[in-house]
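Troubleshooting: if your tokenizer reports a length mismatch, compare your output against this known-good record of 622 residues.
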Amino acid sequence: MSNLLQLQAGFKGFGAKKIFEQAQFALNEGEHVGVIGPNGAGKTTLFRILTGEDHLDSGQLVKAKSLRLGYLAQHDHWPENQTIEEYLINTSRFPIWELKTLGNKLGLNEEIYQKKILSLSGGYRMRCKLLSLLGQDPNLMLLDEPTNYLDLETTLVLENFLQSYKGAFLLISHDREFLRRTTDHILEVEQGEITKYNGNLDDYFEQKELLRTQLEARAMSLAEKRKNILDFVSRFGAKASKAKQAQSRMKSLQRMEKVEIKALPLSARIKIPSPTRTGKQILSMSGVDLGYTERTVLKNIDLQFHNGDHIAVVGLNGAGKSTFLKALAQKLSPQRGKIELGFGVTIGYYAQHVAESIQSHSTVIDEMTRYSHPEVTRQEALNMAGSLLFGGDDIKKKISVLSGGEKSRVALGQILLQKNPCLILDEPTNHLDFQTVEALTQALMSYQGTVIVVSHDRSFIGRVGTKILEVNRGQVQLYPGSYDEYVWSLEKGVLADRFIEDTNFADSTEVLADTADNKINSQRINKTLSRDDKKNLEKQLRGTVKKILTLDSQLSTQQEKLKSLNEKIQSGAGEDLKKLSVELGQVQALISSLEEEWLSASDERDQLRIDLGLDSRHDGVN
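Known-good structure output:
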């Protein structure tokens, strides 16, 4: 097996921070290598050095003459007026018919090649980018988080392709299942060192633990030998008859091997306080339609959730998963039907915008305990903070100085300390590093209460969810099998034909109010109101209805903007991707804020209707 590249005694730093120190590794032809390590350890810096975008401060990068390096960039400059086929012909070393043969493995049909890149979904853009890269005939590919923003279907296509890929690749990913299925070596970037392990991710964990155990045993043995030598020298060093022996042993002590055992990286171990007691039924939905004023997203939902259920909610982006969770959490009223909580049930709701709602002037520990259950002790709160990597004086930090990931951990801890018997979690692993995701996974697996969760992390959702709810084509249905079986069904194409891009399944005519009801029926007005009071209430009602319609329009605008940003993110990179990600977060926060305003205005409208003695349709807005 020929060597493709070697890193020798590599050193790289940024200011006082050392990224690599005496780092070394080698990569051979055909090796499928997963690159892992904590956030900030230097994984992306390593890729930049390999591609020549950055350089080592010292050390050497040796590349074989046969090396053909290909980098799957997040951003590509596609000519706007060229079709996929035209672009591939201009950039590939292979004839187009040969590329199309490869394209079949990526699920690309003839129709795709006649389209322009900007007209494709993010998943198909990724497939075309990969095909373009293959057309350059690399024997080593660098793949930096290739599954970001991909739906499950495209992730499976990419996974299947990499499994049979004959060339070598380095793959950065936080998705354990993706790494487990696609790699045969692991490259660990940690504490300035780069260490290569044979085998997949499971083998890596086993080998690392074994290596550490062996090093600890060797270190203990050497420490005992040192102690015996020093005891001998202390006892007999002053005696003439033993002086030579003492000197000899001191020399052996100086020559003795030194075993350095680096401290383990700080990792999270989360213990969730036991939930409060409830009855068997946690929540029920009967004949429920969900959506907003002008659009129904989900229809005819009939479900029951029981104590101890661990439910994974799956489906395409935009299919309505977050809307479904919001309704379960009592944050969105149903358009039709009933959602009822069981006896003694309270809900802990974590959504993607929750971290932005915590109070910036508060400290970590104060904010984490703001809504904690009365039975939660101070020590339990400190343990939770520590398990989420807020140790020592970190608990006294102001929220305003925390990063986005740290705020997410505070918000998560805040919810987990409430002892709610039902946890509803929308993308809880966003902004969490590899170790914290693993800790949260184990904590939720052993949690005795009910968990309803949405996540794009397959390993996380596959281990936490024991039941699967699928959101598809405006319906929410229990999938008759495990998450692994659901994934298997997609892999085999059993469900593939059900995936469609357009998630707007609602018939708008069913949710628009009858314009004939726009006039207030004076015969229904409560007779006890004075004329002035009645006029004031009618004026308030008209103003509230106008506000709701304005919010509807603003929501539609922002949702279109969100869709556009998601499309741009598919091809963004570097600073562009950072800016787009920031803007995406701002739009998501604005949408959440507008939805809250919409809900508040709807409540105000309903109360005004009651005060005026009107039925639910006489203001023209439902």
